[in-house]
Amino acid sequence: MANLVEATTQQQFEAIVAKAGKCLTVVHFQAAWAPQCGQMNEVMAELAKEHTHTTFVKLEAEAVPEVSEKYEIASVPTFLFFKGGEKVDRMDGAHAPELTKKVQRLAVTGSPVGAAESSTTDLNQRLKKLINAAPCMLFMKGSSQEPRCGFSRQIVALLKEHNIQYSSFDILSDEEVRQGLKTYSNWPTYPQLYANGELVGGLDIVKELAESGELENTCPKAVTLEHRLKTTINQSPVMLFIKGNKEAARCGFSRQTLEIMNSTGVDYDTFDILQDEEVRQGLKTYSNWPTYPQLYVKGELIGGLDIIKELLESGDLVSVLKGEA
């Protein structure tokens, strides 16, 4: 296919991008040793059949280091998107659906008058939605688990130290957001922290807020484990913490407990401790009760299976569950 080519030198790469003019050029930075690159080349070949005005380029990242370094290619596969000789978007990783979406969106030729304004409006709406995706949003390089630059690493550590609850967005995964947010917020660098849809600032401002003790007032604090346990215990007047759920117990003690509870006719809710290790371990300490199941009535611990059996045998179980005892 004439629109699926390889670039082996910097000059070749620059010539292909320049020749494409206003049409879209998609450059795949690949490595022969990476099987996911081979898979993405198959996807690219299919896209080339469909988008005949788009040029698709395969480029060995390690063979043309000057190009890879210029565009900060840190891993393969990475895709860069060019229009009019300028980079307009980026995608890191082997995400076939995302690549297809980006090509479909960017490969618009002969755009009508006003398309640029419309595109800017769409981007601004998307940015607004992202900024408001959580009460506290951090736009950074990498993720909170794996920051990809020193500034991002420092801000993550600060937020963790001050127990701030936040969500993050990796700007390296979306070049459109990365560039667009700088203009939208008139803030040229990253990381960027937002609280309730408003820009707080970058690392220096977050440091100042932390030093002055104002960071906690600016950003919502994370819910502590104790508060979470208390809320979960009081989720229903009768709460049973077991392995599994009402429909399917995952251990013998839990099964026996469910049989007894179901025989009482009293309404109750369950929490599956196998689904949440933090609750599973934390509740043992919180209630000073080392095993499961655990039964709570109106936020108070009643006990485990043995105590439930004793209450059943003494005839007191129903009145305890109804909070009458």
How would you explain this protein's 3D organization?
The chain has 325 residues and is α/β, with parallel strands linked by helices. It is 45% helix and 19% strand. The chain has helices spanning 10-20, 35-50, 65-70, 96-106, 115-131, 150-161, 175-185, 203-212, 215-218, 225-233, 252-264, 277-287, 305-314, 317-321; strands at residues 4-7, 25-30, 55-60, 78-83, 86-92, 136-140, 167-170, 192-195, 198-201, 238-242, 269-272, 294-297, 300-303. Strands 1-3-2-4-5 form a five-stranded mixed beta sheet, sandwiched between helices. Strands 7-6-8-9 form a four-stranded mixed beta sheet. Strand 6, helix 6 (150-161) and strand 7 form a beta-alpha-beta unit. Helix 6 (150-161) runs parallel beside helix 8, helix 10 (225-233) packs across helix 12 (277-287) and helix 11 runs parallel beside helix 13 (305-314). The longest helix has 17 residues, at 115-131. The protein is elongated and about 90 Å long.
List the helices and strands and how they pair.
Layout lengths: L3 E4 L2 H11 L4 E6 L4 H16 L4 E6 L4 H6 L7 E6 L2 E7 L3 H11 L8 H17 L4 E5 L9 H12 L5 E4 L4 H11 L6 E4 L2 E4 L1 H10 L2 H4 L6 H9 L4 E5 L9 H13 L4 E4 L4 H11 L6 E4 L2 E4 L1 H10 L2 H5 L4
Parallel strand pairs: 1-3, 2-3, 6-7, 10-11
Antiparallel strand pairs: 2-4, 4-5, 6-8, 8-9, 10-12, 12-13
Helix pairs in contact: 6-8, 10-12, 11-13
